[in-house]
Predict the 3D structure of the following.
Amino acid sequence: MRKRNDEQPIIGISKRYIEEVTDEKGQVKKLNFKNTEGFNFAYDILDVLGRETPDRLAMLWLDRDKNVREFTFGQLKKYSDKTANYLKSMGIKKGDRVMLVLKRHYQFWFVILALHKLGAVAIPATHQLKTEDFSYRFSAGDVDAVIITDEDDVAEQAGAAIRAYDGEIKAMMTGTAQEGWESLDKGIEEAPEDFEKVAVGGDDPMVMFFTSGTTGQPKIVTHDYKYPLAHYVTAKLWQNVDPYGIHFTVSDTGWGKALWGKLYGQWICEAAVFVYDMEEFVPYDFLGLFDKYPITTFCAPPTAYRVFVKRNLEKYGISKLQYATTAGEALNPEVWQQFYDKTGLKLMEGFGQTETTLVLLNMVGSETKPGSMGRPGPVYDVDLIDSEGNSVATGETGEVVIRYGKEKPLGLFVGYYGDPEQTEEALAGGVYHTGDTAYRDEDGYFWYVGRTDDLIKSCGYRVGPFEVESVLMKLPYVLECAVTGIPDKHRGQLVKATIVLTEGTEPGKELEREIIGYAKKHMAHFKCPRKIEFVDEMPKTISGKIRRVELREKES
């Protein structure tokens, strides 16, 4: 029987690659990375932990019926080797691009580690994709193989795209083989355990992510094999993971956030991860996990916390948590305060993108300001600039950018696959443009304003949607809110608020007047919404981000 992690040794594997430089207060101000040439997470982290601490828990996994499986580092080394041998027998080799549509199945970890060992490029994707989505991604990403879940209608949707694809795509799925699909599980079971290493790592391409596509077709972000090392910041300095505890990040494996919270940084810190292969987010079902399992640190998008604070958290045992973080979209201060009041935990916000690792954070041990994204981490040189490329003064809104010299910092993407022009535009002049705007206060904390294309220009003023949304979110009956600008011949644009109400709240003209009246009392007149629209649900990307561009197009 496996011993608990607090009875297992820690080998300090992170120190072989990362050196912390601290200030006089003990805060990390810089990270020195070493031994990065040829670095390969699967070989240099997973396999080493599998050999030196084979019985240490790496993942506590629950299926949708909450049946539990434990995976140690030794087991994951074994199964990733077997998976690599199977995929090799299927003709997958270094440089091939393999799409993974595996929900939160444990096979995802087997496969992505195996691909890292083979030198094939992993392309995580969500099971919510339809045939048209698959077709676009197969073509844009020059996909060589796809490995899918046998659940839902994924085989039907992906299969139709494969048949229409002008080229060969190797097709595998979990469970029993179906027509046109090889059985991944059978292949892994029958594959030999001894795997012959492939020379791959360092600057080689390792993973490609399709972005959310909030304004157009998704771009394809490429990262190299050094990318996982930068997630030490994510896990150690932001999520505060405990090698004797268990970390739980809410994310489907179809998104980059899963690799932020369910794999790289956590295992570099030798902490176990918690995975619940749920069908959908059901608050009471989800919250019950905290009472039953020893989850010590937790990370979720603000959307989850907005739901949590509407419930009686005491009965769910969430107070057992030691640390909580949030990212993915801006956090409303009101949600921060309510969560703190109910749990005593300060939500530590962070900011990053698919193209980066964590850029801004409320670092472990630092003071936090409710609603602030925090300050720059120890990897990136972060600045705020105006439209002319000049740094803006304290309190002024500018675009968040990362400056770099001749060598890009670890964690910053290699480029957009198949699109050198867009890559050049994003990285021109040694500056990466995030497209997000913020202002910086006198203490160096960054405060989110909005996407550059979301800013509203009304009566000569620039209005950031987030600050208006944060005021309206204080109303107890507002569940979700999105603020956009609509054309107006006198003001240029009017501020409009699209609102989803809590269950049981009836929309109407009286409620609309109440909301506008509340806004007038709590914000400058030029920021106040002049139009309110109540909707049952927001238009969102398949990653759950609100598509403000769709809301704007309704009014154009």
Remarks:
- The chain is about 30% helix and 25% strand.
- The first helix runs from residue 41 to 52.
- The chain has a mean pLDDT of 92.
